[in-house]
């Protein structure tokens, strides 16, 4: 039998909170002082940078960096037959891809639940807000229409991909230029003129704001990946420029009181103004350069 | 275990704030109707019908195990075809709602599997799934900190709020919201919305859903009371 004597010294907690060993305690010690490990306020969003039109082979593209989270969106327009239920409308097909490149959580193979849920969220947001009137995408009623394939790929996963996806999608749609299509009367075949292009009409300026709830009471905006895993609930609010809500997405988790929800909505409306200015500024500078 | 008889609640209308009416379609449920799952339930709201089965706590794959809690997996099977992206997003909503109310820390390194089979969809599908899930979890005897129920509200084009809409009403509505309300504090556990609406409309819908949830929780209570008083 081994004879081991252990001396146990109770050290003060503040010296012992190690980020990797006790992440929850580490974050709690910051939240007590009303700030976060990266120095942000509880309702502060990370620095957002936007780059439009970087992919020349796509009809529209945008790259968004929200802190470390990087999402790139590419839009390809193709000709297709409209669906039987809506012969006078085109359609938009968004797809969010979370490849193994962006984080060690994702394994190669078919898209996981998070990617599919994010794709469904983006599809619902596009449909709910009517950011693009699908009638604008119709070329020949019942026979020909545009279908926009929006591919959103995450290059770096540091939390809050939904916000970054919505910004990237909106910026890429603003950047999209569709070629002119004329129907040849004799052959009734479509003729695409790649030189002459027209812009898409964007009706609503959508911006999303994500929050997460810590310990059932503390609300923080724009969570990083670490904060997301430690939080007890997530909430995403999507607003447009008329202060109408297009989506209040809270996929379960601990409950949220009415006042907290109201705080989130007001923060989302201020965020909407900031991002609208950013996207307009960048789109304007791209147009000037062309 | 003999399956309990079908419990039907009469069509109910309530006046809320004078101008808002909370009317839910006729709903019914049956528990312990399947022999293999540890818990099962079938929930019917009007014509919408969902069957739920729960297996667990059972052994979990090492890749999926969590050291201090049970791993909950939810599968939503549509009536026709294979599960698509839409079902994945419904699964995420149901799973996180169940995780908030189940006491998962009592079964570490175990797996709980909840399977929801859509038998018929006539509107308010997500809320019917949530109700069936809660009844199945109760039937399985899994420890829960609170019960939850699902309520769907639709805002029609003229601004009227309709609770528990049919598929036809959903199609004509301007906005559609589904909330999961918990039984302890009557607060919103889950929110899934479609269409655009104002902040005031959102708050009205939450108030209406909380009122409607009281009726559903009373139904849960009556249903379970009847079942256990019969099988004595």
From TrEMBL, chain A:
Gene Ontology BP terms: exonucleolytic trimming to generate mature 3'-end of 5.8S rRNA from tricistronic rRNA transcript (SSU-rRNA, 5.8S rRNA, LSU-rRNA); nuclear mRNA surveillance; nuclear polyadenylation-dependent rRNA catabolic process; rRNA catabolic process; TRAMP-dependent tRNA surveillance pathway; U1 snRNA 3'-end processing; U4 snRNA 3'-end processing; U5 snRNA 3'-end processing
Where in this chain does the record put each Exoribonuclease phosphorolytic domain? 44-179, 207-269
Kindly give the CDD domains that the UniProt entry links to this protein.
RNase_PH_RRP43
Q: Name one GO cellular component term.
A: cytoplasmic exosome (RNase complex)
Q: Which domain of life is it from?
A: Eukaryota
Entries under Pfam families matching the protein: RNase_PH, RNase_PH_C
Q: Report the main location listed first in the record.
A: cytoplasm
Signal peptide stretch: none
Q: Where in the cell is it found?
A: Cytoplasm; Nucleus, Nucleolus
GO terms (molecular function) for this protein are: mRNA 3'-UTR AU-rich region binding
UniProt keyword annotations, A-Z: Cytoplasm, Exosome, Nucleus, RNA-binding, rRNA processing
Similarity remark: Belongs to the RNase PH family.
* Protein name in the entry: Ribosomal RNA-processing protein 43
Q: What is the lineage of its organism?
A: Eukaryota, Metazoa, Chordata, Craniata, Vertebrata
Q: Which gene encodes it?
A: EXOSC8
Automatic annotation (TrEMBL), chain B:
Q: Give all residue intervals belonging to the Exoribonuclease phosphorolytic domain.
A: 24-143, 147-211
Q: Where in the cell is it found?
A: Cytoplasm; Nucleus, Nucleolus
Query: Is DNA-binding found in the keyword set?
Result: yes
Q: Name one GO biological process term.
A: U4 snRNA 3'-end processing
Task: Spell out the InterPro entries in the cross-references.
Answer: ExoRNase_PH_dom1, ExoRNase_PH_dom2, ExoRNase_PH_dom2_sf, PNPase/RNase_PH_dom_sf, Ribosomal_Su5_D2-typ_SF, RNase_PH
**One Gene Ontology molecular-function label:** DNA binding
A single GO CC term, please? cytoplasmic exosome (RNase complex)
UniProt KW keywords: Cytoplasm, DNA-binding, Exosome, Nucleus, Phosphoprotein, rRNA processing
**Entry's Pfam families?**
RNase_PH, RNase_PH_C
Gene3D superfamilies attached to this UniProt entry: GHMP Kinase, N-terminal domain
Q: Which domain of life is it from?
A: Eukaryota
Please give the family membership noted in the entry: Belongs to the RNase PH family.
Q: Which PANTHER family match?
A: EXOSOME COMPLEX COMPONENT, EXOSOME COMPLEX COMPONENT RRP46
Give the multimer and partner information: Homodimer. Component of the RNA exosome core complex (Exo-9), composed of EXOSC1, EXOSC2, EXOSC3, EXOSC4, EXOSC5, EXOSC6, EXOSC7, EXOSC8 and EXOSC9; within the complex interacts with EXOSC3, EXOSC8, and EXOSC9. The catalytically inactive RNA exosome core complex (Exo-9) associates with the catalytic subunit EXOSC10/RRP6. Exo-9 may associate with DIS3 to form the nucleolar exosome complex, or DIS3L to form the cytoplasmic exosome complex.
What is this protein called in UniProt?
Answer: Exosome complex component RRP46
Gene source species: Oreochromis aureus
